[in-house]
Amino acid sequence: MTAHKPLVDEHGEVREIADADLTRFKPASEVLCASLRKKVGVRGPQKAPTKVQTSIRLSAPVIDAFRASGTGWQTRIDVVLTNWLKRHAPEEIEV
To answer: Would you give per-residue pLDDT tens digits along the chain (95 residues)?
Structure first.
């Protein structure tokens, strides 16, 4: 068995991880205690929920335009609607 270089030097600096180091890594399920394994991937409740999950139907051009704007497109739709509500009332719209 060959000796492995320590990951941390005498000054506490972590060296760059090499491919050989990765082969020695073990899955978290093998090394974490049971209480931590239960928490991995579990998100706690929001402290102050500010949005409500819903499902609405929007036209394809609207969705395409917002999705094309990148990550956060749903938030941008929310911003647009919030700004519209500052100047208008939903009752004003004729469908």
So the answer is: 567 788 888 899 998 888 888 888 898 888 989 888 888 877 778 777 778 889 999 999 999 999 999 999 999 999 999 999 999 999 988 88
Name every residue whose Cβ is closer than 8 Å to that of residue 4 and which is 6 or more positions away in sequence. Answer: 20, 21, 24
Separation in Å, CA 56 to CA 15, 63, 67: 50, 11, 15
Q: Give 8's contacts (C-beta < 8 A, 6+ positions apart).
A: 14, 15
Contact partners, residue 17, CB within 8 Å, separation at least 6:
7
